[in-house]
């Protein structure tokens, strides 16, 4: 199945994507993870991406679309994929349609006023990518899955988050309407535990 996950920053896309990819046996493709990998490796794409991500802005569509196109051409996407963080603009969605057919779009809905606290309290594993929230860590500083150290993402500070949320409202949220009109949008309430949200997603995907 070709699935897209939509939702604001901090809605829980990444957390759910890891679990869904495992459940359906399809690759989890996160444009945010691809950019962070390129930034770490200091590739030309990484240098471009960093200049936008640090300001809480979107990386230009030409760059992002090309990366996704190349990734979806790989053999492991033949039996389906889970896209997390792409598309983020209507232009990206239109570009995607030209090279792949999306079958289901899940929008994880969390009220805007809950997102800031979720994101600024987020800690991620630098190795396996698992996300945590400081409220549930009891002071632990390492990943309970793989033992590596937890870090705060460079773009998870209050100032950058404000512009990411603004970008989401203006540029990304129109996508829900876009996919609703195509009849493939499924809304899921993103409040509650990780397991509760996961169960809701599984049930809408059928
Ligand atoms: P989040 O969902 O928490 O905002 P991501 O890891 O998905 O985090 O993305 C981090 C940053 O990477 C975004 O704020 C944006 O700058 C950039 N980015 C990720 N995906 C895209 C995309 N599809 N188009 C443009 N920029 C993107
Ligand atoms: Zn880990």
Low-confidence stretches: none
CATH architecture: 3-Layer(aba) Sandwich
Q: Which fold does the CATH topology refer to?
A: Rossmann fold
Percent of residues in β-strands: 15-25%
**Average pLDDT figure:** 96
For the largest beta sheet, what order do the strands appear in spatially? 2-3-1-4-8
Give the H and E element order: EHEHHHEHEHEEEHHEH
* Count of runs of 4 or more consecutive helical residues: 9
Global shape: globular
Structural class: alpha/beta
Which percent bin holds the helix content? 40-55%
Using DSSP, what is the number of strands?
8
Ligand list: adenosine-5'-diphosphate, zinc ion
What is the CA–CA distance across the termini? 11 Å
Would you kindly provide a brief summary of this structure?
This protein is 48% helix and 16% strand. The chain is α/β, with parallel strands linked by helices and 206 residues long.
